[in-house]
Every structure is written in structure tokens, then in C-alpha cells.
Specification:
The protein is an alpha/beta fold. Helix content is 36%, strand content 16%. Strands 1, 3, 4, 6, 7, 8, 9 and 10 form an 8-stranded mixed β-sheet that branches.
Length: 264
């Protein structure tokens, strides 16, 4: 089993050592695309006004442009620790025990708009770039650059994939047919009705990833995942499209934000 996670707009600053592109997972397949996207982002970020508009940065966020100008010198940390935000706060990778963290590093990847498919433990710098950004210095749209590059990724070596990415990031690297399953998140209300979650689906996904890591789950397909979920008190069922799954949580959005309650 392998988990595909979305990145986050927000990231921790700092880190040690320096960035080395060749240290990233899938360097042979994605190295050229990574270099082209990085060069285009650095060129864009040299112009404050142009970059702020393209990256949709408000006045308080413009300081993040400094990250894009110092990708090679600002220090690195594991990707799973670099990203913050709702999903990564619920996952809380730094607090995992050693065996759970080892499972996570082995069984999870993150889809980055700058670096493409990353291993959870890959050392990366802080940056600002989202899937929908237009980079004028690229000859083709960002989506096409990554779609073409990811055709060279050996998806089969990842094992059966559970795709937790948001739609924008799925479009950067669509899974081959039969490679895995896309996961939706829904909420069961007090009356038993089920409705889709928006922003807070990220918290449920982060909680799920943490549970999987802590249980050292060895799952080979959707049937085994459904059995694992049932054994761990999670409600999971067929999704809205054939081959997809839905995790149903009793998560209350306000309560989850306030007290960190786990999906049940």
C-alpha cells in the first residue's frame, strides 16, 4: 500500500543542510522537469509585483517570495515535516514514534507543484507554488509539464495506491488505470444523513494517515483496507464513482478545529 498526499500552501521555515535535487525520490524520471519548473519559479519570483499576482499573495504573504529566491541555500527538512496546515496538523508527523515514522516514510508520497512526486522523507526547502499557478517562463502549462514527466514514474513499484490528493494535484499526475483508489471524505450528521466535507476533510485525511502509520498497516488492496477500517472503528464504503472509496466521519468541523478530536 502507498499513500498519495496533497501538499499545503503553508510550510515551516528553516531546516539544515542545503537542497540537493538529486537526493529526491524519482530523480531519474522527474529531474529535468524539476529543474525547469524551479528555474521558471525563480525567474517569476525575481519580480515582486508579477510574482505576487501569479502566486496570489496578499500583502502579509509577500515575504514568502524570499523562499523562492533561496531554494538552494535556505535549508531543508523532510517533506512530511515541511508542510503544515489542517491535514499535516492532524497527522502531526514529528510526534510519531520511530516505527510509525519509518512506516510513513516508506508508505507515503506527496504531490508537489514544484518538485512533483516526493517521498515523505525527501529533504526539501520552503517554497510557494500551487498547482494552478501559471509560470510565464515555462513553454507549456505547469499541468502539462508534470503530466508528461510523471508518465516515466514506475507507479507499479509503489504498490496499491490510496489517493488522498485534492483534484488539482491529481491532475498534475493522474494515476494509471487500476493503480489504486481515490478516497473521498464525508460526514454523518446527528440525523444519520451523509454530506461531503470541504475544508475539514483534510483533518479526517490526516487522522487516517496517522492511524495507518501507528498501526503499521500492511494493506494490499481495497478489500484489505475496508477490513482494516472496520477493525479500527472507521466507517468506510464505496465512493460516488466505481473504484472509489468514502471515509465517513462523525467529525464536527468546529470541534475538530478547537480540540483536535479524532475522526470516529
Amino acid at each position: 500500500m502507498h499513500l498519495l498526499l496533497p501538499p499545503s500552501e503553508t510550510k515551516r521555515s528553516g531546516g539544515g543542510s542545503v537542497f540537493a535535487a538529486e537526493a529526491l525520490t524519482h530523480h531519474d524520471a522527474l529531474g529535468d522537469a524539476r529543474a525547469a519548473v524551479r528555474a521558471a519559479l525563480e525567474a517569476l519570483s525575481a519580480d515582486d509585483e508579477l510574482a505576487a499576482a501569479a502566486l496570489k499573495l496578499g500583502a502579509k504573504s509577500r515575504g514568502e517570495l524570499a523562499h523562492n529566491r533561496s531554494l538552494g541555500t535556505s535549508g531543508v527538512m523532510p517533506a512530511i515535516e515541511r508542510y503544515t496546515g489542517v491535514l499535516y496538523d492532524a497527522l502531526d508527523a514529528p510526534s510519531l514514534g520511530a516505527t510509525a515514522r519509518e512506516w510513513l516514510d516508506t508508505h507515503a508520497s506527496i504531490q508537489s507543484a514544484l518538485f512533483g512526486l516526493l517521498g515523505a522523507g525527501d529533504p526539501i526547502p520552503a517554497y510557494r507554488l500551487s498547482a494552478g499557478t501559471r509560470l510565464p517562463w515555462l513553454d507549456t502549462p505547469l499541468k502539462r509539464v508534470w503530466r508528461d514527466a510523471h508518465r516515466e514514474v514506475d507507479w507499479a513499484s509503489r504498490g496499491w495506491v490510496l489517493d488522498l490528493r485534492s483534484k488539482d494535484y491529481v491532475e498534475l499526475a493522474p494515476l494509471p488505470a487500476d493503480a489504486g483508489t481515490y478516497l473521498h471524505v464525508a460526514q454523518r450528521g446527528p440525523g444519520g444523513q451523509v454530506r461531503a466535507l470541504n475544508h475539514f476533510n483534510k483533518a479526517a485525511k490526516g487522522d487516517l494517515v496517522r492511524r495507518l502509520a501507528e498501526s503499521q498497516a500492511e494493506i494490499a488492496d481495497r478489500t484489505e483496507l475496508l477490513a482494516w477500517a472496520d477493525a479500527h472503528g472507521l466507517e468506510m464504503q464505496d465512493g460516488p464513482e466505481p473504484g472509489e472509496l468514502t471515509l465517513i466521519t462523525e467529525l464536527v468541523a468546529a470541534g475538530r478545529a478547537a480540540d483536535g478530536a479524532r475522526a470516529r
